[in-house]
Amino acid sequence: MATRFDPFQEMDRVLAQVLASDRASATMPMDLYRDGDHYVLNVDLPGVDPGTVDVSVDDRTLTIRAQRSARPEHDVQWLAKERPVGQYARQLTVGRGLALDRINATYADGVLTLTVPVAEEAKPRRIEVQHGTGTTPIEAGSAD
């Protein structure tokens, strides 16, 4: 049985591999959840040198940058090369009511963890209403 060679199929396969690698290097998988009066963001950055991790806030934009460098391999023949290298960057627009000046960042076991507290003025609070004749003064109190 003769096998037909399709050069375009092979080119499509190679191109798909390259594009998948680029797409993977451009993303940072993350989880985001609220735990009480803090938001917690976990970002997967395996193999990233901790010295290259940069977290910054500009107005309401949180930016995370990191770099994974290729290890110099001389005289090797690659059989598979799927782990992306290069610059990673991700930007998130955050809402009001967060204490962005009090973000805590840690990097352990390939995971960057950001803990963002809710601002005091954005926390729920109880309003005390006094009963009586005439005007009713209203006080803001803590929602304990």
UniProtKB/TrEMBL annotation:
InterPro entries: A-crystallin/Hsp20_dom, HSP20-like_chaperone, Small_HSP. Residues 21-132 form the SHSP domain. Belongs to the small heat shock protein (HSP20) family. PANTHER family: HEAT-SHOCK PROTEIN 20 FAMILY MEMBER (PTHR11527). This is Hsp20/alpha crystallin family protein. It comes from Cellulomonas wangleii. The lineage of its organism: Bacteria, Bacillati, Actinomycetota, Actinomycetes, Micrococcales.
